Amino acid sequence: MTNEVEIIGGGIGGLAAAIALRRTGRTVTVRERDAALPATGTALALWPAALRALDAIGVGGDVRRAGVRQRSAAFLRPDGSRIAAIDLERWRRRTGDDVVLLSRPALLAILHRAAAEAGAELRAGEPVRDGDVDAELVVAADGVFSRTRERLFGPVSRARPTGVTAWRGTLDGRRTDTAAEVWGRGVKFGVTPHEGGRTNWFASAPGTFPPGDEVARLRGMFAGWAPPVRTVLDALDGATVLRHEVFVTPALPSFTRGRVALIGDAAHAMPPDLGRGACEALIDAVALAGHVRSAAGVPEALRRYDRERRPATRRLARMAGLAARLTHVRHALPVRDRLLRTAMLAGPPG
Predict the structure, then answer these.
(1) Which of 75, 94, 120, 242 could covalently link to 83 via disulfide, CB atoms 3.0 to 4.6 Å apart?
(2) Could you tell me which of 304, 276, 310 has the C-alpha nearest to residue 290?
(3) Using CB atoms within 10 A of its CB, is residue 243 exposed (0-12), middle (13-18) or buried (19+)?
């Protein structure tokens, strides 16, 4: 069992952890319940801190070449007028890097290939049952509905619904350079570039909605909105629309217990309004491996990992929750807009 690592979940966090932990000399096995990598998925924003984590595991260059660099970012009203913008050039000078947009399937393919080349054993189609893991270190990267988290911390740790529904998708053959969020009365719609000359889009609204004609629902919800929203809605195909309720995890007393470390959404699923979910999973993975490399043993490494990552992600989760509430304000919209402009003066978290 010495020097062996079992990773539960072969998503972004799990594969990044596999690469990072192989670099510490550990024997690594990744067990993923799905039999194959996803073939479809929308774009993720990879912020500079996440790109540094990808650089640390040797795939930052691949991600930058495969993705699209974000050149602008604006917040608009439904009539197309501007509320605020992010000065990405100033922010780039401050952080030393861009924001790169890359789809989840493309990022997973890069990480999967790198994990295999690093010598990790990747077992697809192999779910983990309770207690079915025996290793010196267990990394739980099993997502927002993590069974590992619930086994360690009980039912109180279950993911809970936020009362918000999200829709997302891509448009093939429709290239855009626009990166914008359009905020209406309690609802929002966003558009970003997507690799391969596609357009990535997303929307959210408070409430739960039964399955139905999602295209008709979205066109009704955002009727009369100016481009880029109207442009996307006119081109929507119902077969490509994904809908899901937004869930978050409660604040945990620790990201570790015994020889188990939680990373990514298993530890700190937050509202998607900051676009940081994938980023924080990558940063978790690299941070954990760094402490495994430098600490005297796994128990000390896990204590250091928890001390570093739990406060940082808790702050981000609070910020994401505030952003979500601001997004879904229905009254006093001029006040909301002023708050957003003030927040943009500091720039987003790196």
Answers:
(1) 75
(2) 304
(3) middle
Q: Can the peptide bond before residue 227 be classed as cis, meaning omega within 30 degrees of 0?
A: no
Residue 165 bridge partners (DSSP): 205, 245
* Model confidence pLDDT, tens digit, residues 45-70: 999 999 999 999 999 999 999 999 98
For the chain, which residues make up each domain, given as ranges? 4-68+103-160+248-325
- Rounded Cα distance, 227 and 191, in Å: 10
Q: Tell me, rounded to whole angstroms, the distance of Cα 342 from its chain centroid.
A: 25
Of 126, 110, 152, nearest in space to 9 by CA = 126
At 291-338, the pLDDT tens digits run 999 999 999 999 999 999 999 999 999 999 999 999 999 999 999 999
Q: How high is the pLDDT of residue 346?
A: 63
Q: Specify the CATH number of the domain 4-68+103-160+248-325.
A: 3.50.50.60
* Whole-angstrom distance, CA of residue 280 vs CA of residue 314: 11
Q: How far is CA 187 from CA 124, 182, 222, 223, 238, in A?
A: 38, 9, 9, 12, 20
